[in-house]
Amino acid sequence: MSLPKNDDQNLWVSWNEYHRLVEQLALTVHESKWKFDKILCLARGGLRVGDQLSRIFDLPLAILATSSYREAAGTERGELDIAQYITITRGELQGNVLLVDDLVDSGVTLARVQQHLRERYPAITAVRSAVLWYKDCSAVRPDYFVQYLATNPWIHQPFEEWDTLRPHNLAAWLKRGSSGAAHVPGVSGASGSSAASDSSGVSGNGAAEA
Q1: How far apart (Å, rounded) are the C-alpha atoms in residues 23 and 51?
Q2: In 32-179, where does DSSP find H-type helix?
Q3: Would you say 99 and 62 are in contact if contact means Cβ atoms under 8 Å apart?
Q4: What does the pLDDT read at residue 17?
Q5: CA–CA distances in Å: residue 59 to residues 37, 62, 96
Q6: How far apart (Å, rounded) are the C-alpha atoms in residues 167 and 202?
């Protein structure tokens, strides 16, 4: 599938690029030599990242649901909601925790969740944050990230095509896919693709900034 060319306002990400970013994030965390006991991902954006990291590090995955992008088909930030409970299958949330999301934008979600963890989970020893994309506009710098985005582009992730897909459209959508036609959500006749040029990085040591 051909994606539009990246520019200062838009970053288009293919499935292959997405999975490679998660692998790069895992390597960055591993090379820091920080030992952690649990992985906590923020749903929905951090679910895929958390799932892959949980498999790579062979550690339990905890899930905390948060939501802020609800307005204008998910493109405008609304009031942040944080679920009352964390879902985890083995044990409780304690020790060193790797907090995972797909990106840090304003930094509001990351800061609020860390406050939430401090207030409600005293058994947690330390928290470090890990994201794929770190935008310059964020008030919070994550501990681990893969790409630093200086121009704060809108990130078009590969699964966003399902945001507007509804059950009654599935038959036509599948037929179009089987015909071999490339489908880029919201783009007509798009061609060409470029990878992001931002560098990988680890910011400091200890818990992420609040």
Answers
A1: 12
A2: 47-57, 108-120, 170-178
A3: no
A4: 97
A5: 7, 10, 12
A6: 42
pLDDT at 52 over 90: yes
- Other CB atoms within 10 Å distance of the CB of residue 98: 24
**Per-residue confidence band for 178, with pLDDT thresholds at 50, 70 and 90:** low
Give the Cα separation of 72 and 106 in Å (integer). 18
Q: In 106-192, where does DSSP find H-type helix?
A: 108-120, 170-178
What's the whole-model pTM score? 0.80
User: Of 63-67, 82-86, 98-102, where does the model show the most confidence?
Assistant: 98-102
E-assigned strands of the chain?
10-12, 38-43, 61-71, 76-82, 95-100, 103-104, 124-135, 144-149, 154-156, 201-202
| Count of other CB atoms within 10 angstroms of residue 1 | 13
Question: CB of 112 within 8 A of CB of 193?
Answer: no
> Residue 29 is inside which H or E element, if any?
helix 15-31
Cis peptide before 20 (omega within 30 of 0): no
Query: What distances in angstroms separate CA 10 from CA 13, 35, 59, 154, one per listed residue?
Result: 10, 35, 34, 5
Considering the segment(s) 13-161+195-202 as one domain, its CATH architecture is: 3-Layer(aba) Sandwich (3.40)
For 158, the token pair is: 């590969």
